[in-house]
Amino acid sequence: MSGIATTCHLVNVQSKKKIELPHEKTKVIGRTPETEVQDLFVSKRQIECTADTKNYSVKLKPVGTAISGIDGYAMTKGKIYTVGHGHRLELRLGHHEYDIVFEPPPEVAEESAHVAKKHKPNFPLFGTKPQGDEAKVSVPDGGSWSNVDSKELLVYTSEKCKASSKVAAFDIDGTIIKTKSGARFPKNGGDWELNFHDIPRQLARLTEDGFRIVFFTNQSGVGKDPHKIKDFKRKIVNVIEKLGVPVTALVALGKTIYRKPALGMWNVLLESNEGVQVDLTESFYVGDAAGREKNWAPKKNKDHSSADRLFALNVGVKFYTPEEYFLKAKRVPFSMPEFDPRHLPDSQYPDVKYSRPNVILMVGGPGSGKSHFCKEALLPLGYVHVNRDKLGSWQKCVKLLRDSLERRESCVVDNTNPDKESRARFVSVAKEMNVSCYCFVMATTVQHMKHNNRFRELTDPSHVPVSEIIINSYKKNFQEPEMSEGYADIVKVPFAAQFDDAENEKLYRMFLLEK
C-alpha cells in the first residue's frame, strides 16, 4: 500500500460525479438528489456504505428493496460485503454503477482485490439461494429457483435458457394449464392439466425459432406461506417438465410492483437477458385475463380481470388470448378500463379570487387529488387547513372552522364530504358567521381515484393503502352538491397531474389496475 488513503469516493461511471464516503462513518445512498437516481425500483435507503481509508476497504450492506450488485454479482439484503479500490457497485444490479476510488490509490491493487474476492456473492443472479424445505424441491435439467425482495418475486430458470431478442411470454393458469377438476381455482398442486394438447409442440417450435419462453404469473394466494410456496414450486417444475422446453418463470407473490399489470416482473426479466435488447415488435404475450365479457364464447364466464391484456399494453408487445394464439380463433369483443392513464387531459386548477374571509368546502374521495389541490392552490393563499385526518373528528373540524372565522381567517375544509349531512355541519357555521361558502367538487372519477391510490402504494412506502371498499363506500354515499345547500357557488376542480420526476410520470401513465 502507498501509505494511507486520504479520501474515498463512489464515482458515477457515466457522469463521473463523486460521492464522498467519510472514514468510518456510515453513509446511506439510494434514490436521492445526491445520486440523481430516479429509478423507482431503487429505495431511498438502498445501501449502507462505511469506508476505512486506513485499510483501503469499504463495507457495503444492502438494505433497500432492489437487488444491488458488486462487479456483476448479486448481493443479499442485510449481508455485509467488504470490497476495495477499483471495484464497481451497482445500486440496482446492472444499473446505476459507481466505481470505488481511494486517493491516493493503493500501490498493489491485488491486495484490495483479494479482500473483495473473499466476499463475492456466490448465489444466482436474481437473489438468495433457497434454504431449508425450498432447497428440497427437485428441478429438471439443472434448473434453479431464486427469489427477489424477500420472496415478493420467485424466479425459476431452466439451465438451458438463453438470452434472446425475441420473447414469447405466457400466463400460466388458464393459459398454459387449466384445472383437471374443472373448478375455477385449483384444489391442490396436482389439480392441473395442459390447457390444449398441442401446447408442447408449439412451444418447442418457438424455442427452435430462437424465442426465449417466459411465464409471468400473479399468485398472491400463495403469499409467504412456506408450505404453499413449496407446493407451488413443485407444480411449476412439473409443468415445465411436461412441456419439455427451457422456461424462465416469474411468480409475483404479493401486490407490489411485481404484480401484473405493473412491469416489475418484465424489468427483472430484462436484467437477466445478458445485455441482449428485447425486440418488442418480435415479442408477444398470451394470457386469459383479457377483459372479455360473459358469454364471449358459449357458456364462458366473464374474464376475472384484464391484467394480462393491460400488462402487454404496458410492455408494448402484441397480445393474444390462449384461444387466439394456440387455436387461431378469431378475436372477440372485450372491455377496456374506464380510466386510461395514457391519455391525461392538460388541466389547470381554477383561480381562487374571493373576498375574505370565506369558506371553501372540498368534496372528493380518497385519491381524488383534493388534498394536493389544497396544498398547491389554497394554503399558499393563507387558508386555514381544516382536515379530519389531522384533527381526528368532525366536531374538532367544526370548532377549528368557527374559531378561525371569528379571527376573520379564510378556511378550506379538506374532508371527503360525500353527502348533504356531512356538508351541512360546515355550511351552517359559515352561515352563522355571515361568510360565503363555496363548494369545490373534485371531478376525478372513481376509477381514477383507484389508480391514484395504487400509484401511491407503489411509489410511497409511507402511504397507508386505501382499500377499494372505502372508495366504493364514498361512491355509494355520494350526493351531488346543490346550490340549495347554501353555497355561493359550486366549482368543478379537474385533476391536474404533476410529477416530481420522469420515472414517476412514466409509471403513472401505465395501467396499474387489473380491470
Automatic annotation (TrEMBL):
Residues 121-141 are annotated as: Disordered. SUPFAM superfamilies: HAD-like, P-loop containing nucleoside triphosphate hydrolases, SMAD/FHA domain. The keyword DNA damage applies. One of its GO terms (biological process) is DNA repair. Keywords: DNA damage, DNA repair, Hydrolase, Nucleus. It is found in: Nucleus. Its main location: nucleus. GO terms for cellular component: nucleus. InterPro entries: FHA_2, HAD-like_sf, HAD-SF_hydro_IIIA, HAD_sf, P-loop_NTPase, PNK3P, PNKP, Polynucleotide_phosphatase. One of its GO terms (molecular function) is double-stranded DNA binding. It comes from the Eukaryota. Residues 13-77 form the PNK FHA domain. This is PNK FHA domain-containing protein. It comes from Aromia moschata.
